[in-house]
Design brief:
Rossmann fold, alpha/beta, about 45% helix, about 500 residues
């Protein structure tokens, strides 16, 4: 390791020894190995330092002002900062004392005189143990999968640029701001960026900023020291420190209080956090990915979000399309989400979705986006009881609030429309000049489709988007119209 060691490979070390030449040696050599070091000359100052600052490792002389002064510091460390790994140094080679140190929680011990290489080897082992703990935390965070699919799914023109951009920027260290409606899959994109990054073996820590207690938000994010406020009965690591070496995902970013925005900006500018009650800042190596469904630029204008913070977070911007803008992805998404709901392999449940159910889902407007689709698949799986899923097994709103004009209206039933792109049957609109005579409901629907089709210069995708129907549905309707036209002409 060198002085340019990445922060997540750099240890914060406390060295306590009453020999001045050793303190000066460590003050010089440990930074050359890439670590930060604080030195103390006796057990009392060592304990006071531990109370004020957090360390990854401590190297303690066993015998200072009295025979077991080092054990006194060790005991204090294990009480104040249990995660700190302590190494004991003794010039007397006492096996009994070394065993006592290990019993009290020491990581290992060294016998004086020892070589710098011996110390370096121990520090490497401490780093490896810390990385293993981080990998375990990363695995646990992956098990707690976000709502919606656990991978990016979509081959539509609306999703392809997102997929390509994620692949391009994931390996970088750049901060990413993800925007989009609620339920579009912003956390899924954040996890995709994480799993494809160089930090994939380190923690991924998601934080819902909207769910943070206003009074405890600073402690949740940046941590606190014992007795720093009422109820702080022990040191607590904040989310930034937990994510050290990995990725922190700030969801619902627009809900952050302006005071917290200032502290977040400080981290982004200097790479430092300061727990509540701490005298010294802590360096954290964290990639920040954030997401919001709010208009942050409008919030900047209104004075509720800092413009300089927006600039810092918005190095790369990904805007997620709504499900309405990527209807052709619905079949694949639905099958994947059904597999998740059923907790069964995709190939065993894919055929359970009938064409009838898929057509209803393709015609629905999905105001809750992918999250609503996930809920619909879980609902359908339970209602169908493992049998083929038809339209009758879908939630009521999906079945009744169709985004397309119905081909037939039930007697006494007034259709309800959720899409503003669809004109209800009693609305007035122009029909082709050549149209004469009595029109059926199907004729009126086709007239409107052709009107929108002409307005969009025969662009089928734009027409389908405006009508709120799938591209497949539009093709079918145009094909049917062409067949009927040929029959009439013949």
């Amino acid at each position: 390791m060198t002085a340019t060691t990445a922060p997540h490979n750099r240890l914060r070390i406390l060295f306590v020894d009453d020999e001045q030449h050793l303190r000066e040696f460590m003050r010089t050599e440990l930074p050359r190995l890439g670590h930060e070091v604080t030195v103390c000359a006796d057990s009392a100052s060592g304990i006071e330092t531990v109370k004020k600052s957090t360390f990854d490792a401590a190297i303690l002389d066993m015998r200072m002002e009295h025979d077991k002064a080092g054990l006194r510091v060790l005991a204090a460390i294990k009480q104040i900062s249990p995660d700190t790994e302590a190494v004991m140094m003794t010039g007397y080679g006492s096996t009994e004392t070394a065993v006592e140190a290990l019993r009290l929680g020491a990581f290992d011990y060294l016998t004086k005189p020892c070589k710098l290489s011996d110390i370096e080897a121990l520090l490497i082992r401490i780093l490896e143990k810390r990385k293993l703990k981080h990998k375990t935390a990363a695995l646990e965070s992956r098990v707690q999968a976000a709502e919606g699919p656990s991978q990016l799914i979509g081959a539509t023109p609306a999703m392809q640029p997102v997929q390509q951009f994620v692949d391009r920027i994931a390996p970088t260290e750049g901060r990413v701001l993800i925007t989009g409606e609620t339920g579009t899959g912003k956390e899924v994109v954040a996890r995709a960026l994480f799993t494809k990054s160089k930090r994939a073996d380190m923690p991924f820590v998601p934080v819902n900023c909207g769910a943070l207690n206003q009074n405890l938000a600073e402690s949740e994010l940046f941590g606190h020291k014992k007795n720093s406020f009422t109820g702080a009965d022990r040191d607590r690591k904040g989310m930034f420190e937990v994510a050290n070496g990995g990725t922190l995902f700030l969801d619902e970013l627009g809900e952050l209080d302006k005071n917290i925005q200032v502290k977040l900006l400080r981290f982004l500018e200097a790479g430092e956090i300061r727990p509540i009650g701490a005298n010294e800042a802590i360096i954290a190596d964290v990639r920040v990915i954030s997401a919001t469904n709010r208009d942050l630029r409008q919030m900047v204008t209104e004075g509720t979000f800092r413009e300089d913070l927006l600039f810092r977070l918005n190095m790369f911007h990904i805007h997620l399309p709504t499900l309405r803008e990527r209807r052709a992805d619905i079949p694949d998404l639905a099958r994947h989400l059904l597999s998740r709901a059923a907790k069964r392999p995709l190939e065993t449940v894919a055929e359970l979705l009938t064409a009838d159910a898929l057509q209803v889902m393709l015609d629905y407007h999905w105001p809750g986006n992918v999250r609503e689709l996930a809920n619909a698949m879980e609902y359908a799986w339970i209602v169908a009881g493992g049998q083929p899923i038809g339209s009758a097994h879908l939630p009521h709103d999906v079945r009744t609030l169709r985004a397309v004009l119905p081909m037939h209206a039930e007697p006494g039933h007034t259709p309800r429309y959720a899409s503003t792109n669809v004109i209800p049957m009693n609305a007035a609109f122009a029909v082709p000049a050549a149209a004469t005579g009595t029109k059926t409901l199907s004729d009126v629907e086709m007239d409107y489709i052709l009107q929108v089709y002409g307005k969009n210069n025969q662009n089928k995708q734009r027409t389908a988007d405006e009508l709120g129907i799938s591209l497949k549905t539009l093709y079918n309707k145009l094909h049917k119209y062409e067949e009927e036209r040929r029959l009439r002409a013949g």
